[in-house]
Structure formats: C-alpha cells, structure tokens
Write a structure and sequence with these properties.
The structure is a homodimer. Helices cover about 35% and strands about 25% of the residues of chain A. The first copy, chain A, has helices spanning about 15-25, 45-50, 65-80, 95-100, 125-135, 170-195, and strands at about 1-10, 30-35, 55, 85, 105-110, 140-145, 155-160, 195-200, 205. Chain A has a seven-stranded mixed β-sheet with strand order 3-2-1-4-5-6-7, with helices on one face. In chain A, helix 1 (about 15-25) crosses helix 6 (about 170-195) and helix 5 (about 125-135) crosses helix 6 (about 170-195). The first copy, chain A, is globular. The interface between A and B is medium-sized, with 27 and 27 residues.
Chain lengths: ~210, ~210
C-alpha cells in the first residue's frame, strides 16, 4: 500500500475522480493519506473531508519565498510518509525542494497532448483557447512525472479527444476532463501503486503484464 | 468534378490509397488528372499508369533554382486545369509560385498530430524517432493546407494513433500510415471535392451536413 497526497487549489474535480475510483475498489494499493490546499476555501477540501481523508491548509502568504513554501510542503509530506504526490489543479509552482525530494514520484495532469500546447503560460482555459485558435481537430490530456521544467517530465499516459465543430474553450475543457483527465489520473495512480511504471532515459515504460 | 494532381517522389503508398478509394467509388467528385514525380524511377508513377492516370516527370536538375522549378510546376498544373494539388511524399520544397497560385488548394499529410513533431527537420522516419524519444503515448497524422511555412497551414483532419510498448520508428511509421494517413488523405480529398472545407481565420471548418 502506498500513501498518496493530492495537492489542490480549487474545486478538486480530479481529486473527486480519484476518491470515486478508490471508493469503487479500483485502487486497492493506494491510500489517500492527505489533501493539501494553498487556498482555505478550496472546495476540494470539503470533498476530502467527506471521504474521510486528512486535510491541510498551507497558504503561501506564510512564507517569504516560493522556495521556503516548497521546503515546508516537502517537510510536511515527508513527515506524513507520502510515497506519491498528485497535482490536481495546484496553482503554486513546485520548486527544487519538492522536485528533488520526490523525483519521479510527483505526477501532474495537463489538458493537452504534450508537446502540443504546453509550457509556460499554458494552463487551464488558455490551453483550450490556443488549441481552438490553431484549429487542431484532435487534442487530449497527458499525465506525466514532474521534473524541473514546465510540462517537460516523462509522459506516463495520454488520451486523445476529438474537437467538435461548435466547441468553445469551456465545452472543450469539460469534454477533455470527462473523456480523458478523470480516467487517466486514477489509471496512472493505479499503475504507480502497483509498481508498473519504470522511467528509462526520460521515457516511461508501462508494465501491463 | 474537380481535377486532382498528386505530387510524389517515391513509392506512392498514399497515392495508392487515393486510387483505391477512387476505384471503390468513394470519390465520385474527384478526377485524378495527373501524377507528377521529380524522380524518374518513383514507383508511384507505375501505380498511376496502372490506374490509367496521366503522368509527368519533372526533375529539379533541369532548373536553376527552386523558384524556377516551382514556376514550371505551377505552369504545368495551370495548363492541366488542376483544382487540387495533393502532396504525397513529394520531397521538393513548394515555394511562393505554387503556394500563391494554389492558395488553400494544396494539401499535405504529415505523420504527427501538428503542432507536435513538425516544422523544419521533421520528415519521414525522423518524426517517429522524435516522438519515441520524447516518450509520447499518442501520436497520429494531420492533413493540412499548405501555406508559406513548414507545417503551419490550416489543419483539415487529424487522427490519433496509440504508441505501443515495443514500437520502433519503423513499426510506428507503418501503423500511422495504416491507421491514419491512408484514411485521412482520401477523406480530405472527398471533403474538398464536395466543397465542404471552408477556411476562416486560418481554421478549417468542415461541413458534414
């Protein structure tokens, strides 16, 4: 059994997808040990409490720098003996203290098929706005390990989603969540918890045997 | 009925996919009027002849510059009253004379989901090598109109293809052809021939009514 911490800032729909799959028996090897939010009113904290998961509120204003925040977060997660960190809409930049302490043990979900529409400035609705502006016909979502770059870490899973003729950034965002994000993230946690993810030369090999 | 010219340099498997769909009755509004190769021994020329399609051999060595080649190609295609130009593995760079004479009437197929793995230096096997090196789990193919940039024109159709654990650049190239390229290219020619492609603000709207 591995101990999972989910980091959130807002509504926590990806967190809910994980909690739902845990409740459904899909994640027997993963224990949701902690949910941390940098925002006090993040609704995801309520979702965690409803599922009986311990929560912590760690606001950035208590710290002088991003590095100090990252050190405090790292210390909290080490104290809680966390094995896997899941970024589920966490709006604080993860820096060296976290990335080094949890190398290939932090996963993030990005709402595009990396390397399309990713990197600095591509977050939330902006990703979908840019995809529609470029006129792509297929987009999707990517779960990846977090390294020191932005969206540059080893890719774990990807799923394609078709763009429809009348899509708006909002309709596309919702469909990418429903068809890709809410499926990929629990699947990635399951694979990690079962020891099926192996990183070699920055490429993730998924053991499906 | 529109008159289509296919430009090739080699084996012409994408040309064959078009000819097969024409023979099967899938492209009633498209007449394959001409196949042009810059290489005399391109096997695609044999495929064209076998299907009763007129061929032309236009080698680059006859011309002083890429621009002069493009002017000669343009004049040939205008003389043949070509409505649509299809690039099917044509290894000569299309320049201003062609692009301006056939604006939004030249289509190309690229073996990735643009904007991933495209632009200068990304052609043939190199595209698939880079996709595997980055460790993406989903790739695909894109049919797009050709503009003055490299792979920057309006996207017509895209199709995703899963990457498999044991893929090599060669196995991936073949599967992308089979699952995506050979389907997308005839579909794009069909849509064009039926007047169903409309370009607005560099985005292609596909009329499927």
């Amino acid at each position: 059994m591995i101990r999972v911490c989910v980091l959130i800032s807002g509504g926590g729909t990806n967190l809910q997808a994980l909690l739902d799959q845990k409740a459904a028996g899909f994640l027997p090897e993963a224990e949701f040990a902690l949910v941390v939010s940098n925002r006090k009113k993040a609704y995801g904290l309520e979702r965690a409490k409803a599922a009986g998961v311990k929560t912590a509120y760690l606001p950035t204003v208590r710290f002088d720098s991003n590095e100090a925040y990252n050190e405090a977060l790292r210390d909290l997660l080490l104290e809680e003996k966390i094995d896997l960190v899941v970024l589920a809409g966490f709006l604080v930049v993860l820096g060296a203290p976290m990335v080094e302490a949890f190398k290939n043990r932090i996963i993030n979900i990005h709402p595009s098929l990396i390397p399309s529409f990713c990197g600095d400035g591509f977050y939330g609705l902006k990703v979908h706005e840019q995809a529609l502006k470029r006129g792509v016909k297929v987009t999707g979502a990517t779960v990846h390990f977090v390294d020191s770059g932005t969206d540059t870490g080893p890719i774990i899973l990807q799923k394609a989603v078709d763009i429809l003729p009348d899509d708006t950034p909002e309709s596309l965002q919702l469909r990418v969540m429903q068809q890709a994000e809410w499926k990929l993230l629990p699947e990635a946690v399951k694979l990690f918890s079962e020891g099926r993810l192996h990183v070699k030369d920055q490429v993730v090999q998924v053991d499906r045997s």
